[in-house]
């Protein structure tokens, strides 16, 4: 598990807290810092804030997502069918607040299915690097790449263009990371 995954999960938990709970945590950290006569409470507070900000930054990096409940409706399938796709490296799932989230570029909303290029891309990467961070994969898919003519992998998947070139590049990247 990468640090990014830990921060993402912790940020998700923070989003579930009410304003009163946030205020309580801030007061407890201030009391702890005062009682210890040091900066530990403030350091923890900064770490919590950083984790929350990290989640926001990751959201910006990976783009729009859809949650499991919405995906079951779009695909007209069960949660178990979605889990089966994840387990078989045919769908990228990013840990979310209450359920997984799925980058929307994977989904063909018109036909109610996972795009073939997305399924092939996820399988290509995870078959080589099974422990890859979903956040890293999603961010890589949303980033422009010179080797793809300045386009991002997600664009190619949505447009169904140059999938073979994308898979070749993905294979090279995943292999390099897996070493």
Rg over alpha carbons = 19 Å
Q: What's the SSE pattern?
A: HHHEHHEEEHHHH
- Domain count: 2
General shape: globular
Percentage beta strand? 5-15%
Q: Assign a percent range to the helix content.
A: 55-70%
Biggest β-sheet strands, sense, barrel? 2 strands, antiparallel
The main sheet orders its strands as: 1-2
Spatial separation of the terminal alpha carbons: 16 Å
Q: Which structural category fits the helices and strands?
A: mainly alpha
Number of helices: 9
Q: What is the residue-averaged pLDDT? A: 83
Low-confidence stretches: none
Give the tally of β-strands.
4
Describe this protein's structure.
The chain is mostly helical and 179 residues long. It is built from 9 helices and 4 strands, in the order αααβααβββαααα. The longest helix has 23 residues, at 40-62. 23% of the residues are buried. The model has no long low-confidence stretch (mean pLDDT 83).
In short:
With 179 residues, the chain is mainly α. It is built from 9 helices and 4 strands.
List keywords for this structure.
two-stranded antiparallel sheet, single chain, 9 helices, mainly alpha, 179 residues
Write the layout of secondary structure elements.
Elements: H1 3-16, H2 19-36, H3 40-62, E1 65-67, H4 68-75, H5 79-87, E2 101-103, E3 107-108, E4 113-114, H6 116-128, H7 134-142, H8 153-159, H9 163-178
Antiparallel strand pairs: 1-2, 3-4
């Amino acid at each position: 598990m990468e640090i990014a995954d830990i921060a993402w999960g912790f940020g998700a938990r923070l989003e579930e807290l009410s304003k009163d709970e946030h205020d309580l945590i801030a007061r407890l950290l201030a009391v702890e810092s005062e009682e210890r006569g040091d900066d530990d409470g403030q350091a923890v507070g900064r770490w919590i804030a950083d984790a929350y900000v990290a989640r926001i930054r990751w959201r910006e990096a990976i783009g729009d997502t859809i949650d499991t409940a919405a995906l079951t409706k779009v695909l007209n399938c069960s949660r178990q069918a979605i889990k089966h796709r994840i387990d078989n490296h045919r769908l990228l799932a990013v840990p979310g607040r209450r359920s997984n989230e799925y980058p929307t570029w994977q989904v063909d909303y018109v036909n109610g299915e996972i795009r073939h290029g997305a399924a092939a891309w996820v399988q290509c990467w995870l078959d080589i690097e099974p422990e890859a961070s979903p956040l890293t994969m999603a961010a890589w898919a949303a980033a422009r790449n010179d080797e793809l003519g300045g386009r991002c992998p997600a664009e190619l998947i949505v447009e169904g263009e140059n999938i073979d070139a994308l898979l070749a590049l993905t294979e090279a990247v995943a292999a390099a990371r897996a070493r």
